[in-house]
Specification:
The protein is α/β, with parallel strands linked by helices and 479 residues long. The chain is 31% helix and 29% strand. The protein is globular and about 80 Å long.
Length: 479
């Protein structure tokens, strides 16, 4: 499966092609977002590289694709000449994986672009030698900001999703618009358990947290707000996972997943990674086209132990290729699942949902003492804060020590006063390449994300000076 490049002219296509010249990765060129959208939904490419320098709402398009039932795993790399912080943040919030700045006489390094694309294709277990990383010592205090979502909140607990791997007992400071409006200050979240209910967003971890208040009265304030605002609570109590490889059937499924329903869905076009998908999503209902099962029966059987250990039902369906003999075979060999003779339409799906809701275990059932936030709610966004220690910096990234692990490819913002010495913005965005335990915490190797042309040149200059005079003299202006 290849990479898509979207640009009105051929320049970006050839730039990407040259960056990947030594690989066998296929590349397709489309001139507009409108022309490419259907192809993305049909082929589900792993990466889309697009030029945002033309007059179309790139950030809205990325957000739309990243929220699609089936296309949400596609990675978007953006080329742009718009250097405003506002546009960059909108792109990052929408889900852009990287931003490269282009301008008169400037293009990013083809080698770095090629390395970045290779990393995107293997971010969970990347080759340590993908990037040419040549750091210098950079001994400075910093602050980490990591972003996530709050699924629900009660007067004492909340469920969040984040790329931080909090362990039971660990706590971290956080901020949220709701807590700010209620003037609830100096709050920490303490992990109770991790990854027991799956994920609704696109973060690595879901974490059940106890809210640690600086003032006991804050809990009463939050509880009163929850009771007074039940009308905004939207609980998606049932989670579906579809496995469907036919584009037209995926389009039909997309039409059935409505915003105002009490269920949400994620879709995949293959059962190749079915065990990983199930453990990540932890769905209550799995629907699989039998066409995917016929050639992968051993893979399908992997769902059986998952169903035994979770509140989960499985339904297989057919879109017109089965006969009575096929149905009888599936009923005989796979009695742990239900087998529909036809495809699952909206009335049948909603009937299934209604029956599942009635059987939900107590710990999964809706609770009026909680507010469940819709993904578009302004209150669902959270920022986690932690002190950090920068240990090194290079032209393409840096090293940092944290008390926690951030998952590979997780995005974060690092604020450091020492960046001002290099004349760059003190707040810089990064993605985590890898992490490993060290004697004083967890070391993370970071790659710059959305770095401007100016900042890139200034970092390069700073690295050269530090290499010559050392960090202490450099940070004190002795160069």
């Amino acid at each position: 499966m290849g990479i898509f490049v979207i640009d009105q002219g051929p320049e970006l296509f050839w730039f990407v092609n040259n960056a990947l010249l030594e690989t066998e990765i296929a590349i397709k060129h489309y001139q507009t977002l409108e022309a490419c959208e259907e192809h993305i939904l049909k082929e589900l490419p792993p990466i889309v590289v697009l030029n945002a320098c033309h007059n179309y709402p790139v950030e809205k398009f990325i957000n739309k694709m990243r929220n699609h039932v089936f296309a949400r795993n596609t990675i978007f790399i953006v080329f742009t000449s718009n250097t405003s912080d506002h546009f960059k943040k909108n792109l990052l919030i929408s889900g852009a994986a990287q931003i490269f700045y282009i301008g008169m006489g400037h293009n990013p390094s083809p080698k770095f672009l090629g390395s970045y694309i290779k990393w995107c294709l293997s971010s969970k277990a990347p080759n340590a030698n993908i990037f040419d990383y040549k750091p210098v010592s950079f001994d400075a205090e910093a602050e980490l900001r990591l972003f996530g979502r709050m699924g629900w909140v009660s007067s004492s607990h909340c469920m969040i999703e984040t790329n931080l791997e909090l362990n039971p007992g660990q706590s971290i400071e956080f901020t949220n618009l709701l807590f700010g409006e209620l003037k609830i200050k100096d709050v920490k979240l303490q992990c109770i358990e991790r990854n027991k209910v799956g994920r609704y967003y696109q973060y690595s971890n879901s974490v059940l947290c106890k809210i640690i208040f600086n003032d006991p009265g804050y809990s009463r304030v939050l509880g009163a707000w929850i009771q007074a605002n039940q009308d905004i609570s939207i609980n998606k109590s049932i989670k579906l996972v579809y496995f469907e490889d036919d584009y037209s059937d995926r389009a039909n499924i997309k039409q059935m997943i409505k915003m105002d329903k009490r269920y949400c869905a994620r879709g995949y076009n293959s059962i190749q990674d079915i065990t990983e998908v199930l453990e990540y999503q932890i769905p209550h209902l799995v629907l699989i086209n039998r066409a995917l099962i016929r050639g992968n029966k051993k893979l399908f059987e992997k769902i059986k132990p998952f169903m035994k250990n979770h509140f989960c039902h499985c339904v297989t369906y057919d879109t017109g290729n089965d006969n009575d003999k096929d149905i009888a075979e599936f009923k005989k060999n796979y009695d742990f699942a239900l087998h529909s003779p036809t495809s699952v339409d909206l009335p049948l799906l909603e009937s299934m949902i209604q029956k599942l809701e009635a059987k939900l275990p107590t710990d999964l059932a809706p609770d009026k003492n909680k507010i469940y936030f819709d993904k578009h709610s302004k209150y669902s966004r959270i920022t986690l804060h932690s002190p950090a220690k920068l240990t090194e910096i290079a032209t393409n990234g840096g090293g940092i020590i944290l008390p926690f692990v951030i998952s590979n490819f997780g995005a974060c913002e690092i604020s450091c006063q020492a960046f001002n010495t290099a004349m760059i913005n003190r707040n810089q965005f990064f993605r985590v390449f890898s992490s490993q335990n060290s004697s004083n915490g967890v070391y993370h190797f970071l790659i710059f994300m959305g770095q401007s042309v100016k900042d890139n040149l200034l970092v390069k200059e700073a690295v050269e000076k530090i290499e010559t005079v050392g960090f202490e003299k450099w940070v004190n202006g002795e160069f």
